Amino acid sequence: MAEFRMPALGADMETGTVVEWLVKPGAHVRSGDVVAVVETHKGAIDVECFLDGIIGELVPVGQALPVGAVLAQVLGPGEVAAASPPGEAQARVGGETAVTQPGVPVAALGAPAATRSARPKVSPAARRRAAELGLDPERLSPGTADGAVTLADVERSAGAQGHPRVPSAPAAAPAPLRAARGGFDPAQMRQAIAAAMGRSKREIPHYYLGTTVDFARAQAWLEAYNAARLPAERLLAAVLLLKATALALRATPQLNGFYENDTFRPSGPIHVGWAISLRGGGLVAPAIHDADRLGLPQLMTALRDLVQRARAGGLRGSELSDPTVTVTSLGDRGAESVLGVIYPPQVAILGFGRVVTRPWVVDGAVVARPLLSVSLAADHRASDGHLGSQLLAAIDEALQHPDEL
Amino acid sequence: MLNDRQIRTLAADVLAGIAPEAELSSVGDHEDLREALDLDSMDFLNFVIGLSERTGRPIPEADAPKLFTMAGLVAYLGG
Q1: Are A126 and A119 spatial neighbours (Cβ–Cβ below 8 Å)?
Q2: What was the pLDDT predicted at A74?
Q3: Interface pTM (ipTM) of the complex?
Q4: Beta strand A15-21 with A43-49: parallel, antiparallel or unpaired?
Q5: Structural domains in chain A?
Q6: Which residue numbers in chain A have pLDDT < 70?
Q7: Which domains are present in chain B?
Q8: What pLDDT, on a 0 to 100 scale, did the predictor assign at position A180?
Q9: Nearest CB to A331; choose among B40, B52, B62
Q10: A128, A314, A405, B65: which sits with the fewest CB atoms below 10 Å from its CB?
């Protein structure tokens, strides 16, 4: 048996409200299925369940619940539902140390410990998360009867080792119920941004670096690429910036990950949070997963889809909880440069300005050249300017070879 | 061949899917649509994709600046 819990959709989230269940009790769910719509101050989010099995009793809709609260039980094959209703934080007994959300009463289940095989099966989501946390997933105790280690088990172990998923966040007013799918309340959105950015400025000792990149080669390559293609197949300069950043981060893992509980935890995968401004005000930076491993056309498709869903609704929970670094690109009508504010618990944000034509020295002569300002704001608790400079240099270098992106 | 009114209707239709709150009728014929309606590069590309798909014209990237204003758009798609 495993619990499907209220996910943390960003550091600024304390509670969420299930406004719609997309499955019925008894339905078979597979890892990654979208099972519920959860209202947060970033709007209504499609939340995935990273468990496999039969979903049991569901918490009622319309109830604000803390991050980590059990929303439903998910039973493996042949399991019987526990008597205890969902909606409370629950501790597993008979296994290792019981872990609960602080301040939430424990309802002991009394479920028998699962029989374990020598090498437990590990779900892909669990394996990925365990790698991020630096845990060996095969050494974790599985929470399901068939002996499979799930994401929930990994999260529980991470908590037991003193890395609770959600660090203490500033208090925020509980969100009133708004079921409008895709919409968001601008006042609540502003409050969410204020909470996250206020915490960032209070807690994170930022350092800032900036450099100017000659964008001529990238621009020429892009024009040649787009010239023979239909509009739907064209690329925007943004995807070059995204890919260059993701590739460059491979060599500087100290700038990709999370700072929590006085410890920096690097992330293996590079999930780039892409800052998207919303019409009517507000900002959201959902993840493009494994951006370093996607080709440019794939990244363009992912980016178009992400922007569309950020504005019209339908962002997924994992897109809000997974970013390991943020990129903000002002586009072709923005300011010339930007210095970002780190989104905690991340440790770095890259800022790209508008491409501008300015005098530049090439081979000892002054020429007109398209130039791009690139900045880095990074957390001094995790890295220093020397390393940050290397990241900016690597981004510059990548943009000089656009055909290799 | 599309006439002036058909082109304006088409542009408004395509735009409605990109920037639902945008009021195309409030924009002057020679104003930059991107400035007037706060369209970023992604929005404008989506606008060009929509126009291209609805008219069957490829709209080469080099021609995109001709679509920055309604006057330019009417001349380009009507021509």
Answers
A1: no
A2: 92
A3: 0.92
A4: unpaired
A5: 2-160 (2.40.50.100), 204-404 (3.30.559.10)
A6: 80-183
A7: 4-21+29-78 (1.10.1200.10)
A8: 43
A9: B40
A10: B65
